[in-house]
Amino acid sequence: MGTARNSVNQIVTRYARLHHIDPDGPCRDSSIEALFSNRLDSAGLDRTECLIVEFRRDQLISDRRMVDLLRRHQKEVSGRV
Question: Which domain of life is it from (predicted)?
Fold first, then answer.
């Protein structure tokens, strides 16, 4: 058996603290609008997904890392871990 992985929520919260980003603050809508053409698509983002988008917008993570974190977070949320 492998070692237990930290959840994406834990990783993102810790990363936000390291970069002095308020993890409980509101997301900037402009960053989300740039990634999603349809505003309705961005309305369903939770706090963790919103922070991941903020990290990418601020160029703190790469495109690939953002996609990996979002994919992994969706798997955790849907229970398909």
Answer: Bacteria
Helix, strand, or coil here: 48?
A: helix
Query: In this structure, what are the phi and psi dihedrals at residue 52, rounded to the nearest 5 degrees?
Result: -60, -40
Residue found under tokens 């990418």: 56
List all residues 6 or more positions away from 2 whose beta carbon is below 8 Å from its beta carbon: none
Rounded to whole angstroms, the Cα distance separating 37 from 3 reads 39
Amino acid identity of residue 16, one-letter, is A
Q: What is the pLDDT of residues 26-73, one digit of tens each?
A: 665 555 555 554 444 555 788 899 899 989 989 999 999 999 999 999
Residues 37, 44, 69, 18: what is their CA dihedral angle, to the nearest 10 degrees?
Answer: 100
